[in-house]
Amino acid sequence: MTLRLQPVQVATGSYDVDGQLVFTNGFLAAVLVKLSGYHDDMAGMWFLEAGFGWVDTPTRPTFADLDAAQAWIEQQLAQAA
Amino acid sequence: MSSAPDLHAMNWLIRKLESIASLSEVERQAIESLPVRIHKLNVRQDIVRDGDKPSHCCLIIDGWACRYKLLSQGKRQILSFHIPGDILDLQSLHVPTMDYSLGTLTKATVAFIPHESLRKLTARHPGIAAILWRDTLIDAGIFREWLVSMGRRSAFEHVAHLFCELYLKLQAVGLAGNYRCSLPVTQADLADALGLTPVHINRVLQEMRGKTLITLRSSTLVIEAWNELLRVSEFDPTYLHLEKRATG
Hints:
By secondary structure, chain A is of the alpha+beta class. Chain A has one helix at residues 66-78; strands at residues 3-9, 18-24, 27-34, 46-51, 62-63. Chain A has one domain. In chain A, 16% of the residues lie in helices and 37% in strands. Chain A has a five-stranded antiparallel sheet. In chain B, the strands form three sheets. A four-stranded antiparallel sheet of chain B has the order 1-2-8-4. A four-stranded antiparallel sheet of chain B has the order 3-7-5-6. Chain B is globular and about 55 Å long. The termini of chain B are far apart. The A-B interface holds A 12-16, 35, 38-39, 42, 47, 58-60, 62 and B 73, 75, 195, 197-199, 202-203, 206-207.
C-alpha cells in the first residue's frame, strides 16, 4: 500500500496550519497538521487532525515525523482488509 | 495503622457538606468523631482500582484526585475531578464493587473512613445520611452536565464550562477567591477529562489567553472575564446546588 501526500493549508482556527492530505488509492484517508511553536514539547510534530473510516479514531495521535504518521495510517487501513 | 478521630481531616468534610446543606452542632460533632486513617500519597498514585471492593471511603484532605476508567491501549477517561473535602467513593457504602478507579493528580493526603463507622453514623443521624445521599445526587448531576458538554459543547465551550465549575467548587470550600484558583492538572488530564486531545486543549487555552479570558501559569488559573466564560459555556450553576455560605 502506498500513501500519497499532498501539502495543504488547513483552517484549524489555530496557528497550526501546515498540513498534508493523505490519500490511499485515490481516496482521502487522513489530514495531518504540523504543530506550531505554541505546543511546546509537541512543536514540530505531526497531528492527526482528521481521519476517515478506519483512520477515524477517538484518540488522535501525534507523530515525530511524516514517516511515523504514514506507518500508523497504513496500520489502521490494514484493519479494513 | 489504627483509626482515630482527626479534627483537621473532618473539618474539610464538614466544610464540603456545609456547602451543600446545613449541619447541626450535634451532627458536626458526630462527624468530627469519625475514626480515620490518614495516608500521604504521591502524584499519580492509585487509591482504589476498578473492580476493588473497598471497606472504607476515601476523603481528600489535601491535593487533587480523580475518578477514572481505563480501556485497552492506555485510553483513559477521567470521570470527575476532586478537591479537599470530597469523598471519592461514597457509593461503595451501598454498591460494593468499584466500577471506576481513583487516583491522585497531585501529591495528596487522604483520610480513609471505615464503612462500619459511616454506617453507624448514618444510622444514628438520619440528617447526615440525607446529606451524604444529597452529595451522591449532586455527583450524578455533575456527570449529567459533563455528558452534555461531551456531546454538545464545542472544545472552547467545554473548557470554559469546566473552568467555571472548578472555580465555584473550590470557592465553596474556601480554596478560591477573586477569580483565582489552583489548577494543578496537566493538559493531558484536561484532555482525558473532556474527551479531547491535548492538542485541542492547547489550542483552546491559547485562544482563551489571546482573548484575555484567562491566564493559566504555574498551575494557577486566573479568570479575567468571568461573565464571558459563563456566557460562552451557557453555564448554569444550579446543578452544583451550592448553598450561600453564611460566613462569606
